[in-house]
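Sanity check

After download, print the first record. It should look like this:
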Amino acid sequence: MASIISTFNENEKNSISELKKLLPEIVKDSGVPENYILWGVSLDKNSTDERLDVILVKYLRARNLDVSLAKEMLTKSLKWRLEFRTDTILTESFPSDIFCEVGFIHKHDKKNRPVTYNLYGGLNNEEVFGNLDRFLRWRIQLMEKGIQLLDFKTVDQMIQVHDYNLVTYASYDKTAKTASKSVTQIMQDNYPEFLEIKFFVNVPWWGDWVFKFISLFLSEQTKAKFVVTSASGVKDSMLAVIDEDNLPVSYGGKSIVPELEDKKSENQPSSE
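Expected structure tokens:
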């Protein structure tokens, strides 16, 4: 598999070089420690680590290679990581009985990109979203877990699946909308160019309204990565990207999802 840096054009290479020179200023202005490590990579302007170039180009592409705007975005993102305590989030624990039904990472696609599944149907909105800070920290932890699976050499993006099975119009209430808007904003501001494809599956008839709402907070680049499908088209659309052996059974594949199986076992009545 070709290295990511081999795909950079000359404009991207030049912009990366310019942004790299600004790293000491970015680190200082953001308030993070000197020699800060972002996703396992040191923000060192003298670094020859190709992974740093891959990370920097994400911010540049998100700002159309405008170095000044990319600098501003990276600075704000580092400030957010400091304030949100993102660097310790992987050590935090959340109620598995609640969140295993909300989202999980399961295997990878045909290009070895990790796949994250987000489930919206049949949830107790108050239980899941009522404590907004807890939900956001859980969701960002899920994102950071996905990033741990990227090597930033040959793989630097992931696949997301948003499943609306069993979602009703009434269930998309104010609590869910607030949580959705908050997560969308955090992702757009702090995780640029990590998304390759976002599947919206089992979309209900009223889904167009939801997408119009969500789209208000998304860039055109992000929206171009959306694949929206009804229940009848789920299997074919996902098998085009994910091998059958890696696709969960619930989407027409052959793979068992341990998180969901454990939950089913817990909910089964005892035979005693």
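If your output differs, re-run the checksum step. Summary of this record's structure: The two ends are 53 Å apart (CA to CA).
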